[in-house]
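hiii so my PI (J.) wants the whole complex modelled not just the main chain, which honestly fair. so below is everything: two entries, each one labled with what it is. i double checked the lines twice but i was tired so who knows lol
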Amino acid sequence: MIWVTWRQHRAQIIVTAGFLAVLGVLLLGSAVEASRYVAEHAPPGCPGPAVACGEVAVALGRRYDAVYSVFGWMPLVLPALIGAFWGAPLLAREYERGTHRLAWTQSVPVWRWLAVKLSLLGGAVVAGGLLLSVMVSLWRPVFRTGVDSTFGNIGVFNMVGVAPAAWWLYAFALGTAAGSLFRRTLPAMALVVAGVAVSMFTLFQLSDHYAEPARAELSGTVLLDDHDARLVRAAWVEPSGREVAEPAGTGCPRRVDVGQSSRNAEAWQACLFGKGYRYAVYYHPPSRFWRFQWTEAGILALASAALGALAVRRTLH
Amino acid sequence: MSPGLEVTGPRRAPALEVTGLGVRYRRTWALRDCSLSVPKGSVAALVGPNGAGKTTLMHAAVGLLRPALGGVRVAGEAAFVAQDKPLYESFTVAEMLVFGRRTNTRWDGAAAADRLAGLGIPPGRKVGALSGGQRAQVAVTLALACRPDLLVLDEPLANLDPLARHDVMRSIMAEVAERELTVLLSSHVVSDLEETCDWLVVLNGGRLQVSGDIEELLDGHLVLTGPDGASAAGTRVVGASRTGRQVTMLVRGAPPLDPRWQARRPGLEELVMGYLRSPESAALPGLAGVGA
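here's the output for the full assembly
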């Protein structure tokens, strides 16, 4: 059965491995070039927080953005592709071409046929996702010493840690289940693409509730110092200590800003702070990175197991 | 009930035994109350019009679907060649044989390779590039290489030219002659089966109509031709048709007393057509009456 799995799915396996290899070469090349640039141009002590390092930091940022624009779409598109080309055809193509009547009438029982395929391909998908995560995690620090965005930026968050592996596995299970329901490859592929997009949006909305948000009271500014934090919500705190969403009757003039200027809003905020108001921010600090990674991975793994069970049930009956 | 009227059940041990089988797709029954057995070593023809439940019965026999009622028992291992001979298009013929070896506990790879070589099918050719006849031969070879006790073939001759039909049939019969192999094959063309089959199963509208040894069935029936109005008393009429003043009937058992009838032994096709035209008639082992 291992040979059969390899023979039937080698196109997907080779293309995915090839893609990861090309991406690895790209990231490696970019990292080597950036390291060289730093070695040749950076003043002593850079990169770092010193003022003299600004130029180097900007140049590195430009290099980072150039590569990031290439793979910024990967957190959404790669799971969709995995689901559409690894998951959807697994059962749908057998039904579509009638070959399930060949495959499932040999002496290998259907449950074993399914178990081998799901575990081997699921394992390969998880390995591929982890490899992607490792490559991205090794590449990013070259550009971003001390400037981290792995937690606050949902796109980056989904590319590091265990998130890619969990998303790939989920998409694979979704595709397999869709294939067992529709028994046609094309509708199953379409459902995967839509399903992955909807799931990602839903989990993003849900992620605010993975933990009780931390609370910070700010005075003099409405911006949280930690730029990698995830903001959940914010409110004003009256001098009396009461929290209100919109302060009213404060006596501070409030005018609408025009264009890109925020002068009026800033003046209003400064006036409020002057009257003893404070700004309460509810947020998740970046220290919760792994807690969020494992929570999301747990949800996706459970969903994958449920979808896998659905596919097995549909197939065995 | 006179002696000799009963179609006897199998004297040999059954290779396939179906008891009270009922298969339902959503709300409609594809197969109902179906009980039959096919004796070891026989070549059984499963005939019936399209939609009669032939494929459903075969799928139940090889475990592709779970019946709602009743059960199917196969003595030993069954191999199946499904309708349209599904194979993996992108595999080469040699890779199809590897597929068979990897997915079967019993596997005679040497015999399979010899057979394909004997048929002149190149092992390096992609399955998608084979002709219809070659494709059928590869599918049958795969099934035979599992050394099955029961070979189930769903419309093995459909879409084949007469030469290929003959070749495929010869391949199967050669295997039957060599060892104890039971074959159940379906067709809606009765003439394909006349020379090769010795057991007949007729399905119609999801119900079993006939099940028995072909020779005994033919011996137990008569085709009567006579004038309109001749008495058919004392016989069990399967079906009748009128052309002008003449009546032709298929009857089961002894000829009627009325001397105006001319009687002869039916052909297989006449027998099958007679039953298919009268869905309410049945000739089953252990069933006394013909008709309702």
